[in-house]
Amino acid sequence: MRIVLCYPVEQRHLDLIAAVAPDAEIVDAGQERIAAELPSADIFCGHAKVPVPWDEVVDEGRLQWIQSSAAGLDHCLTPSVIGSEIIVTSASGLFADQVAEQTLALLLGLLRGLPVFFRAAQKREFIRRPTGDLHGKTIGIVGLGGNGRRLVEVLAPFRTRILATDYFPVNKPAGVEELWPADQLHHLLPLVDVLILCVPLNGQTRGMIGAEELELMRPGSLLINVARGPVVLETDLVDALEDGRLAGAGLDVTEVEPLAETSRLWDMPQVIITPHVGAQSARRYDDATNFFCQNLQRFRAGDSLLNLVDKKLGFPARLQE
Question: Which residues of 113-123 are buried (b: 16+ CB within 10 A; e: fewer)?
């Protein structure tokens, strides 16, 4: 068995994997060697951020299982992989705590006027200005996977009213007032003060928030995107912010990354931008390795895998506990 890794690992991570699969060859390919090493892998764990010859990998017929070290799977779900027998599992929900913290940072930063106060501080201006409140707001969460459900738990103590949509509108959390199918997005939009995007990137979600959707949102509402950048059409978002339809946006992701230096978003005082760091954590790679080892034990034993992905949907049909 040849296990190829492509995420930042240290010796302790390699030792943990070796303890589960002592007979396996473990290759720490990194981004530099992943394209060359992947065609001869039986198992791949990681997230290739460089071009990978997925068609060649599929044609080779050796790769059995992809364990993504990220929740998003657009990096590996190519048509050839989707049509193959390769098993895919994700890290859905593994970094839900961190995504929830990032969402709170963006949301509270906007509501409490931090971009304005930061700019004033740079000018040494000590001027009181109006701020907003999170308590009492109506929040719309689009996507109730692991990240969305953790957000419900975090936001509920702020005495917010939470509405949501999801591809699988089942098992409604206690903190959610209404849970609708994904096709009810347009019903949700006019009802919320804050819209939080937690969906994966696939054919159905790419460009799902554009001019029509932004026009349906309440005047003065906020948009928070901790999903994937291409879910929101940047040009339409800029227009909605400039004409005052939206009061602000918190963006951990952008349609094109890195965000172009010429983007109008950079200069907007009602926008907070962070460089796709929502899932970052001091223990991220420890958690990713522990999860991989747990699934590796299951794989070797022939048991069902955690976070098994429906490759046509692009995410796990059900998050296992």
Answer: bbbbbeeeeee
Catalytic hit among 12, 125, 257, 318: 257
pLDDT per position as a tens digit, 285-313? 999 999 999 999 999 999 999 999 999 88
pLDDT at 55 over 50: yes
Choosing from 75, 149, 161, 276, the catalytic residue is: 276
- Examine the residue annotation and report whether 13 is marked as an active-site residue of this protein: no
Nearest alpha carbon to residue 21 among 307, 295, 303: 295
Whether 298 is catalytic is no
Q: Give DSSP secondary structure letters for 266-316.
A: GG-TTEEE--S-TT--TTHHHHHHHHHHHHHHHHHHTPPPTTBEETTTTEE
DSSP state letters, 36-75: HHGGG-SEEEE---S---HHHHHHHT---EEEESSS--TT
Annotate 113-148 with DSSP letters as a single string: THHHHHHHHHTT---------STT-EEEEE--SHHH
Q: Buried (b) or exposed (e) across 255-286, using 16+ Cβ within 10 A?
A: beeebeeebebeebebbbbbebebbebeebbe
User: pLDDT of 188-200, one tens digit each?
Assistant: 999 999 999 999 9
The catalytically annotated residue of 149, 213, 228, 255 is 228
Span 227-256, mean pLDDT?
Answer: 97
257 is known as an active-site residue: yes
Domains of the chain: 2-94+282-316 (3.40.50.720), 96-273 (3.40.50.720)
Average pLDDT score over the chain: 96
